[in-house]
Amino acid sequence: MSSWRYLLGRLDMEGGEEIIEGEVPMDSPQLTRTLSGPHQIKGNIGTPVQRLLDASGRPLLQRWRSTMYAVDPYNRIWTGGFLRDYSIDGPSLSPDVVGFTAYAQDFPYESSWYGVDVDPLDVVRHIWDHVQTRGESNLGLKLANTTSPIRIGTQLEDVNFVTAAGEEVQFEAGPVKLNYWTTDSCGGKVDELAGDTPFDYLEEHDLRSDGTIAHSLKLGYPSIGQRRDEVRLILGEQVGKMPSEDYDGDDSVTRVMVLGSGEGRDRVYAVAAASGQAQLRRTLTIDDKKIKTKTDAQARANSELRRVLALRKGGKIANLVVRDDPDFPADVGDEVLYGGDHDWGAVEQWVKIVKMTRAPGTSDDLLLTVVRADTLSL
């Protein structure tokens, strides 16, 4: 089986790309795939290489234009993105490559748009279309046509009322809005929509037979991935290190209070409470002015209460080290079962993989960043 290799490319910024080097000599690489976030490649090029230098002896690497991809032994791109920055220390050059989705994070919306009764995933596609049509901004990233049953945005209305205390309140309610005076991060807006809807996204780069690369953004409602019943992670077998468990006091909640739109006594308000929890009463307060009705506020309170009560059933596991497995079958977004006899009692928990990190050439171990799966759909 061949080893990992690293491709260096150059975007033409109009949707095209040229691969200019097929064997970048990377030392100590750290490769990361991230669910609903940008991938990353870090490492270093230990000494200047003639084919990576221009005529003046400077690096061919260009910040915010060069691309790099990690290709696994099966000739599949595992992760990649564009060169955000790099540092030089003596003969060593250390690139910092981030996934394409990072490009939208500090990209402002440069026009004005609003939507009524729209699918949040259509808003995501609109945002990325806006990003890639501004000129010198086309990454060639194609978005999936996935849809959801969720609809957001209502007809524009000016709300005016006087509170019981005599205070006059005015605000504008209604559509989903994107504009240059409030939307300073297109990527931030996508992440907001992903959290509220909810949905997952995952960046993919596929190496075609002709050597070119196809870039896509998968969208999954309500999530990407699947429950992998055939993948079991057992401490002492696949998992070589006992993971820590975090029992956060902030998760021990017995009541949820939701505050929605409006001001003062007239704010939309709802409470969900659980009794008999064998602990002091604790309230989680959610302040979200996007909630317009008492019914919606109560539904949010009920949902959050179910989630926090589920968190009481066990601790949070953040990281799992899968040892010596270069061909781990699951991917980010998948749910897998972890089990182990810990020092303070046995643990069995379904977890969702949200990040995977490899260090090819250094170790075949795989670091999984995970979250509890049993609370995600509550």
Tally of DSSP β-strands: 22
For this structure, the quaternary state is single chain
Category from helices, strands and their pairing: mainly beta
CATH topology of the largest domain: Phage tail protein beta-alpha-beta fold
Strand count, sense and barrel status of the largest sheet are: 12 strands, mixed
Q: What is the CATH-assigned architecture of the largest domain?
A: 3-Layer(bab) Sandwich
Q: Could you name the ranges where pLDDT drops below 50 across 5 or more consecutive residues?
A: none
Helical amount among residues, as a percent range?
A: 10-25%
Radius of gyration: 24 Å
N-to-C CA distance: 44 Å
Shape, per Cα inertia axes: globular
Number of domains: 4
Keywords:
mainly beta, 40% strand, three-stranded mixed beta sheet, globular, Phage tail protein beta-alpha-beta fold, 22 strands, 11% helix, Archaeosine Trna-guanine Transglycosylase, Chain: A, domain 4, 378 residues
